[in-house]
Design brief:
Blueprint (H helix, E strand, L loop, with lengths): L5 H14 L43 E6 L4 E8 L18 E4 L9 E6 L23 E6 L3 E14 L5 H5 L5 E13 L2 E17 L7
Parallel strand pairs: 2-3, 4-7
Antiparallel strand pairs: 1-2, 1-5, 3-4, 5-6, 6-8, 7-8
Amino acid sequence: MTPLTGRALAAVVLAALLAGCGAGSGADGGRERGAGAPARSATTAPPADGAGGAVRPLARSVPVGLRIPAIGVDTPVMRLGLAADGTVEVPPVTEDDVAGWYRHSPTPGRTGPSVLLGHVTVGSHGDGVFRRLARLHRGDRVEARLANGTVAGFAVTEVRTVAKADFPTDDVYGDVDRPELRLITCGGPRSGEEYRDNVIVFAELIATATATTSGER
């Protein structure tokens, strides 16, 4: 299916984010989530300015793993589609929490904003896979392991915590002319089972490599 872009993508993703982020006990700590066989690092330490304009876009290949060394994330990636009500799906609330790639956005490394979502908490199970997302800084590396055996290496360019009522739709989902990544979870104060804010990580492609193992195509 053709990826959605711009406001068409924003409408479905934003609705799902406003619906909930797997609220539950604990916002930090807990065990790290494993992702199985590790992938080789896609690049050396990214440049401070996050410059990635010289890296060519990759061929389409779905993400099967996500690694963020700075915050201890090493997780499988599931595919997310649309729910019955027309909003984007979010990963299920389970003990073995994983990140999810919205399959109507570009695959990581393709031109445009590739969107991955994860929980900050997962109900009674405790911590979610993106519980430390807000701790990332400019220049931190994010590696997406693709089904064709490629590792797409991104550098964080910005981390924002914004009120859900002020979600920056155009900045997050607007069309861009280079491969970029968006990692999104909930954050900020909680009221009952709801979080007030969203944490959004912006990153751009800086390098690619071949993984030591590849996932399912």
